Automatic annotation (TrEMBL):
Statement: the UniProt record of this protein carries the keyword Cytoplasm: no
Gene3D superfamilies: Vaccinia Virus protein VP39
One Gene Ontology MF term: methyltransferase activity
Family: Belongs to the CFA/CMAS family.
Domain of life: Bacteria
Protein keywords: Lipid metabolism, Methyltransferase, S-adenosyl-L-methionine, Transferase
Any Pfam family: CMAS
PANTHER family associated with the record: CYCLOPROPANE-FATTY-ACYL-PHOSPHOLIPID SYNTHASE, FATTY ACID C-METHYL TRANSFERASE
Coiled-coil positions: none
Record-level GO BP terms: lipid biosynthetic process; methylation
Name this protein carries in UniProt: SAM-dependent methyltransferase
Active site positions: 392
Residues spanning the signal sequence: none
Amino acid sequence: MTTLRTTPPSSQPLCQDRFTRWLKPRLMAQLDAFRGGRITLIEGSQCHHLGQAGPLQVTVIIRHSRAWKRLAFGGTVGAAESYMDGDWDTDDLVTLVRLFATNLEQVNGKMENGSARIARWLLGLAYRFQRNSITGSKRNISAHYDIGNDLFATFLDQRHWMYSSAVFPYPEASLEEASTYKLDIMLEKLDVRPEHHLLEIGTGWGGLAIHAAKTRGCKVTTTTISEEQHAHTARRIKEEGLEEQITLLKQDYRALEGRYDRLISIEMIEAVGHQYLNTYLEKVDSLLTVDGQAMLQAITIRDQRFDEAKREMDFIKRYIFPGGFLPSHHAMLASVTRKTSLNVVALDEIGQHYARTLREWRHRFEANLDKVRQQGYDERFIRMWRYYLCYCEGGFIERSIGTCHLLLAKPNAKPVPLTGAL
């Protein structure tokens, strides 16, 4: 929960033009139709209670009347931009996101008028130009991952720098413990042994590669196309004295060659784009030995939303992950079946662990805002990043999005011994 700074007492609502005065009650009527919770809306001296009695209770303060127009004409992306610019605040952004996720049909079907739908169409058109070709992937990855390692250091776990869902072995586990546990269970499921050569697609900041080399004794080849991540990982590998055991590449996954006993890719599939999903999984297949196995960690969207979502640009695609896309379980499994020789061995859902991971990131980010500001990030960026973390956390809690571990194996792969791990 956030302590809100309320606006000074006033005998009048915020200054509004005639169109806003016409628009506001219509939007409020749509908010009042929300189920599952209630929004206490404060604007100047006015206070409205919208929605139903329910477990989700949140307060929103309108600080600038243009927020209404931005919601009406920009839809959910407009609402996010309005928050970034300080037009409105809330005491619990995660709960607000959950309310909107719970009422997604109402939001998409009734709240977004013709102008908002046109805005969605135009954003969707722009999204088409973010295709993840080899050149496009480099540009899209750099836009997010090369904004500064020091920023990510303010909220990621300090042991592995894992920018992906952790798995919490018990409720009181720290983020560092949960990140280690996640790596251990993935390597265990994949049955990585000292004699294996492990390929990692998507290095991140080197956490998996270093952990696998140290705990499994295997040889690791890992690749990234992020300049910042490559430089950071190269330094970590040298500090750990693992230059002979880990090979660090700066290559697009499509350029990789050779055969590997095991392959792992943690939350990289979201960066390939739906146009290249088959290409990516075909490449995974081609890089494995005849008895090889692959483990993917993937953020997913509900099957029922996949076709619509792959064509639209939401807040995340607009401001956080250009070119990003979320596969669904069905989309991945259908592609594996149609385009590869791989068998689906297991699919384990860990989405609620991601909600907890994001909460830990958010708390650390908020605790380090002074450092973030010292690094040169302005208030609009801070509000954007806060919105991103809360937006994702709320989505995972409501299961609008999920995360899974997908274990794939060549037909000749031997069964992995049962261990009791997740």
